[in-house]
């Protein structure tokens, strides 16, 4: 078996093992939370009879270990169970939310990743001159301000004051045409771009600068190549591994970490869905969400690993 | 000029000229923008409801975990959803009295133990079937079943028997209750075909709208029920959008994405009201923010400790700083002027000397632990800090413990001896007292056990003479105020806001926010 395939198989099986441990952790975490789902569903208006009835109906009186393995068995057969609170099938109700989140993440990534890499290259090209300082300054400032504050600021100016864009995404409908949808998510995409730009840009810049010290860059310079061509053709391919790592981390953030943005812009994605169910102690949904998030996270990191291996001859052909 | 303006007003109100055009032409004859705005609003109101258009609501409180089953409704969005498609037997009138809805009329036997509700003739469910007395009986049965998880379960406990008799529904109570019709006006008790026993979340009822699309925690879209019997419901379509974030809700209103919102944050309400196209709607209600002590736990089992703390709170300061003036001061009873049989008491003031006197008399020394959390009421931790300060002025040491929002209602409220909380209030004294102050009540969150109080409560229920009942409720209020574990510093106003795209608002409608949640049906789209 070729060493690359063995390496990949190893990575993927490690990922799956990790996912299993994560599922145990998620389950334990949801058990430790204060209050139980029956109390949370009925809220302040819970009478003891109603509580007892609801607990019995939901099987909350079974021991936790039994509940865990029953659930795991279902998941392995592709059945995420039904929501305790609404009684709906989790896989289908989560599916549409996940699609929305992926839609938002896709457009934010489509804009921010090329932009970040381009700005990173630009910053290297004009290192220590005003374009470099301007790019660094602006992106660092935008990453330092909490995301909800940026969101409120752009909402106020672009949405309410000048009425250029929709301040919230409440009009977002998954079945609308693509332009109507893009119009609705313009502000969230803008804010997400601002939030993740700096990280990727800085990493691109640092990784390329690192490579720029190498002897072959000097050779390229001596051959008379233009600065931008050296960076793009010779330096960038050799710094892909660290950049891909950071890009994947940020993509994972776009899927699993945008709860605040979703809440602020009232976007019907996974984040709001998860939060609603956490506060109601809807264990099956929380676990399903946790598992999906963990899978996305582990999956994207796996991709980063694989890309690093494939682009690095030293890893591709280990001694 | 007056004739010209009248001509303009009529045209604008009928929608023949746009609002912008009206303002422009009014300005041309020397009318200021503010005056023109007022004129237009009056003209629009006078022209009466217009049919058609889409009305959008931005509401707080909806969650992905909600259901369309009316028994499970716990928040404003779920309540509004029920109002769209369903109706109860009775409803609150604007002044807080009770009137028939699905029931055309109702009457009681001499002893107030047997109630007869006559079903309104000729009304149908949105599936076309006529409403029968059997449907009503089945609805009451479903909600009073212990297996059901209905929010109205507690209200129906005194019902011994329900039966249909032709067009009439006859309800037998195990003990007399003069307020029976109020209980059947509870929003959970929307009348459903066969009581909703077959399909509790089908959203089929007698209401003014028919639900077209419901994505819980995101949006509910409904269109006008063409066969609706009543005169409510002017917009052709109503869209409820769940916007839980305060800033986003206000921004959506300001930019015109929605026409009406609830729960404007008190802190920014004055600024929201400044916008030219927005009107802030404040209405006084029975909701109150409270500090509750368990009368059976140390040190609160000593009435002097309770009195010391009641004198140690600065009510006016809390109204000014926590409610930003949008509310009124409380008087340590859960009852205010919004209740039908209200009697005013002498106002209890902040009095550090009396507080210190009672504390000394009680013999208690040491600090008092107060638990609070952000979700017990908006600004609760700040209110606790103000309380701590005003008590310090009387030499009383209050220690504050901040609890997590998660699990507050199960672990702290109704479990720990002293904490912050809120009550939404009830339509009648009887319901409020029965829910939280009767010694056997499940939610007796002050552990108030007073034999005289309990006796008065039962006696008042059976009393059909209003003057005598009013006196009984006054006596009960005095008992709670002077011996109970409730510190009630303030009653919060409901703060809603509407844009000038819709008209027809009426102030001070009793009950829930947004004109007892009827605003979308009683208001109409102007242009």
Explained architecture:
The complex is a heterodimer of chains A (319) and B (527). Chain A has helices at 3-32, 37-42, 48-57, 64-76, 90-125, 130-144, 147-161, 178-212, 215-223, 227-238, 240-256, 259-264, 270-279, 283-311, 313-316. Chain A is mainly alpha-helical and 319 residues long. Chain A folds into two domains: 1-84 and 282-319, no CATH class; 97-279, MetI-like (MetI-like fold), CATH 1.10.3720. The two termini of chain A are 15 Å apart. The model of chain A has no long low-confidence stretch (mean pLDDT 86). Chain B is built from 18 helices and 21 strands. Chain B has 527 residues and is of the alpha+beta class. In chain B, the strands form six sheets. Chain B has a seven-stranded mixed sheet, with helices on both faces. In chain B, strands 4-5-7-6 form a four-stranded antiparallel sheet, covered by helices on one side. A four-stranded antiparallel sheet of chain B has the order 14-18-13-17. Chain B is globular and about 75 Å long. At the A-B interface, helix 2, helix 3, helix 7 and helix 13 of A face helix 7 and helix 13 of B.
SSE blueprint and pairings:
The complex is a heterodimer of chains A (319) and B (527).
Chain A: H1 3-32, H2 37-42, H3 48-57, H4 64-76, H5 90-125, H6 130-144, H7 147-161, H8 178-212, H9 215-223, H10 227-238, H11 240-256, H12 259-264, H13 270-279, H14 283-311, H15 313-316
Chain B: H1 2-13, H2 19-28, H3 33-47, E1 54-59, H4 76-85, E2 90-92, E3 98-100, E4 103-108, E5 114-119, H5 133-144, E6 159-165, E7 168-173, H6 180-183, E8 209-215, E9 219-224, E10 237-242, H7 246-254, E11 260-261, H8 266-274, E12 278-283, E13 288-293, H9 303-311, H10 315-321, E14 327-329, H11 352-362, E15 367-372, H12 380-392, E16 397-402, H13 408-412, E17 418-423, H14 429-436, H15 451-462, H16 466-483, E18 486-492, E19 494-499, E20 502-503, H17 513-517, H18 519-522, E21 524-525
Parallel strand pairs in B: 1-10, 1-11, 15-16
Antiparallel strand pairs in B: 2-3, 4-5, 5-7, 6-7, 8-9, 9-10, 11-19, 12-19, 13-17, 13-18, 14-18, 20-21
Helix pairs in contact in B: 1-2, 1-3, 2-3, 9-11, 15-16
